[in-house]
């Protein structure tokens, strides 16, 4: 690790149910405000969901929006915002040296479902009415590819399918490609359009893992005794990553440095998490970063508000961090629901301002803390200011088929 | 139905599939591609919307008949009239 180039974050673009830029999103996190609302889902009525309301036309022509996908629009918005935030002058940058690496939980469900439903509803299942846009919309590289078309970028682009570990996985891929010298700038993160596919809600419901609550803002409640499942959300978050030396040469603002990471696999089940492997993943990420558990100021948990998943992650965290109170623990899904392939990247973004102000947002909706989730450093209710500041964040993101990803970021210190 | 109505139907479809285009001054005798930002996928959209909205099928070998508003009117008018008579 020590011989590899240091990688830094120099730009952030995001859209999430709490806002379309980091300051707005962070303000809501510190205020303890939920972004979950009711959303009409085909065949299922209104469901609690996280919906984004960014201005699609800010960076896209209306035709692009019509031809492309929602995930593509989210990706285009986030990429453009990240480039602006990074102060990157595209006109004078070799576009073949910009790589795009986006994590996705899934892609194509929305477009396929929409087309199938249209065929059944209006065209008596006659396939001559099936759209010729179907394949370019549903190829797995679509959201990343739409960015290249929108911005005229000619470097590598692809998506990383990593279930709900994908947000971290996209960033990790960007780090690796920069270190390999495959690009000079990486646009890396994750996106999700999942709320627009009823099959995803129906699948979670059949699995007994879909949140329900009379008040949608209270539906996502990780670590609470009454949690009953996931609130599905859409969103995206893309970072500009660069090698430190390059960033310093161009006088870029440095937001944070990548300290270490790890992706591993449970190797045990399609759905059920495995706390031993989660713990191992965090331990290996710490080793990769050359850090000890007590060096971590804040753990950003993956917990999705499912009865079993939250408990298992808490077990893994407790095993690694013991009873230490110096490591704070929070959860962002309690505010915005589970933005699937974007979750890891969006949740990390919400915590990054803590490097500046030392404040960690809380976990909301914990009215009756589940004793199995009562981690010593768990912040519930209100944000806290950490004595000595927050210098290192460990970001968990786990997914189905037992994929675990852990990313560690540190405050930049030249 | 007459040729002017057919041209308006085609323009209405183009307005849907190319919403960024200004259609106020489209010349009937000039290729649509030469005056509007339309690609091959857009022409497939025109074909699809004729099928969905008006029940008119344009075989692939005859796509070239859609190159200008005039050629659209000449080619499609008999199809609209046949549809109306059916």
Question: Which key features would you list for this structure?
Answer:
heterodimer; A: 414 residues; alpha/beta; Peroxisomal Thiolase, Chain A, domain 1; 2 domains; ten-stranded mixed beta sheet; three-stranded mixed beta sheet; 15 strands; 33% helix; globular; B: 86 residues; mainly alpha; Non-ribosomal Peptide Synthetase Peptidyl Carrier Protein, Chain A; 4 helices; 0% strand
Overview of this structure, please?
- Chain A contains 14 helices and 15 strands.
- Chain A has 414 residues and is of the alpha/beta class.
- Chain A has 2 domains: 7-249, Thiolase/Chalcone synthase (Peroxisomal Thiolase, Chain A, domain 1); 260-410, 3-Layer(aba) Sandwich (Peroxisomal Thiolase, Chain A, domain 1).
- In chain A, the strands form 3 sheets. In chain A, strands 5-4-6-8-1-9-15-14-10-11 form a 10-stranded mixed β-sheet, sandwiched between helices. A 3-stranded mixed β-sheet of chain A has the order 2-3-7, covered by helices on one side. A two-stranded antiparallel sheet of chain A has the order 12-13.
- In chain A, 57% of the residues are buried.
- By secondary structure, chain B is mainly alpha-helical.
- Chain B is globular and about 35 Å long.
- The A-B interface holds A 61-63, 66-67, 122-123, 128-129, 131-133 and B 17-20, 37, 41, 44-45, 48, 51-52, 57.
Task: Give a quick precis of the structure.
The complex is a heterodimer of chains A (414) and B (86). With 414 residues, chain A is α/β, with parallel strands linked by helices.
């Amino acid at each position: 690790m020590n011989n590899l180039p240091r990688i830094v974050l120099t730009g952030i673009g995001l859209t999430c149910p709490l806002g379309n830029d980091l300051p707005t999103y962070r303000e809501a996190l510190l205020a303890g405000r939920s972004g979950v609302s009711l959303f009409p889902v085909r065949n299922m009525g209104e469901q609690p969901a996280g919906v984004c309301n960014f201005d699609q036309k800010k960076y896209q022509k209306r035709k692009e929006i019509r031809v492309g996908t929602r995930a593509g629009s989210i990706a285009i918005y986030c990429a453009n915002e990240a480039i602006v935030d990074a102060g990157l002058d595209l006109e004078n940058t070799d576009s073949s040296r910009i790589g795009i690496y986006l994590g996705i939980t899934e892609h194509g469900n929305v477009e396929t479902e929409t087309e199938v439903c249209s065929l059944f509803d209006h065209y008596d299942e006659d396939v001559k009415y099936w759209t010729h846009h179907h394949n370019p919309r549903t190829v797995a590289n679509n959201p990343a590819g739409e960015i290249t078309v929108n911005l005229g970028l000619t470097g590598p682009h692809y998506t990383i399918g990593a279930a709900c570990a994908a947000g971290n996985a996209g960033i990790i891929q960007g780090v690796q490609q920069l270190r390999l010298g495959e690009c000079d700038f990486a646009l890396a993160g994750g996106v999700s359009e999942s709320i627009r596919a009823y099959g995803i809600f129906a699948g979670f419901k059949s699995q007994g893992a879909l949140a329900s609550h009379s008040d949608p803002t209270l539906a996502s409640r990780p670590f609470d005794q009454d949690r009953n499942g996931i609130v599905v959300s859409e969103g995206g978050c893309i970072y500009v990553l660069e090698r430190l030396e390059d960033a310093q040469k161009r006088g870029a603002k440095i937001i944070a440095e990548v300290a270490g990471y790890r992706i591993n696999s449970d190797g045990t089940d399609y759905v059920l998490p495995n706390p031993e492997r989660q713990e191992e993943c965090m331990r290996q990420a710490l080793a990769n970063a050359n850090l000890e558990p007590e060096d971590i100021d804040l753990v950003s948990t993956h917990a999705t508000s499912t009865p079993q998943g939250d408990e298992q992650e808490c077990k893994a965290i407790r095993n690694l961090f013991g009873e230490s109170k110096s490591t704070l623990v929070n959860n962002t899904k309690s505010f915005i629901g589970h933005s699937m392939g974007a979750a890891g990247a969006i949740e990390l973004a919400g915590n990054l301002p803590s490097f500046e102000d030392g404040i960690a947002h809380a976990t909301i909706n914990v009215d009756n803390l589940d004793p199995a989730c009562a981690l010593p450093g768990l912040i519930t209710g209100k944000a806290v200011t950490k004595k000595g500041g927050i210098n290192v964040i460990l970001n968990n993101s786990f997914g189905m088929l037992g994929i675990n990803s852990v990313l560690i970021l540190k405050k930049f210190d030249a | 139905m007459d040729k002017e109505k057919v041209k308006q139907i085609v323009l209405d479809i183009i307005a849907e599939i190319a919403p960024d285009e200004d259609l106020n001054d489209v010349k009937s005798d000039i290729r649509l591609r030469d005056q509007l930002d339309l690609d091959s996928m857009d022409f497939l959209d025109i074909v699809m919307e004729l099928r969905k909205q008006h029940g008119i099928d344009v075989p692939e070998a005859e796509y070239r008949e859609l190159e200008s508003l005039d050629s659209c009117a000449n080619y499609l008018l008999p199809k609209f009239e046949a549809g109306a008579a059916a």
